[in-house]
Write a structure and sequence with these properties.
about 110 residues
């Protein structure tokens, strides 16, 4: 017989809490990579928005958090390519993160 242990809601919420904290910490890397002061200010604002997101066990909210994580990774790659300079793609990716945060808030 095979018994599967279901995750309790507290465990599911803890996993999302870790993902939210990871996203907030990942923005710190973006701050280090950025060479533009205005870009650094935008990253600081994003960091604050991400830091105070409430973790949930809902699958839609988790998918939004994963999408935010993926966009942050793309942004890190773009900043590495442009050596911290602002480009059209960095602006687009920052707007994508802001839209994903707004979408996440509507899912809650």
């Amino acid at each position: 017989m095979c018994f599967f242990k279901k995750k309790k809601s507290a465990e599911k919420t803890a996993l999302d809490r870790e993902l939210v904290a990871s996203n907030s910490r990942a923005v710190e890397t973006l701050i280090v990579l950025s060479e533009d002061e205005a870009l650094t200010n935008r990253f600081n604002e994003l960091k604050e928005k991400l830091k105070y997101l409430i973790p949930f066990e809902d699958g839609d909210v988790k998918s939004c958090d994963k999408r935010i994580s993926n966009i942050i990774d793309d942004l890190r790659i773009e900043l590495s390519k442009t050596k911290g300079a602002v480009s059209e793609k960095t602006d687009k990716l920052i707007k994508d993160i802001e839209l994903a945060i707004a979408a996440r808030r509507t899912e809650v």
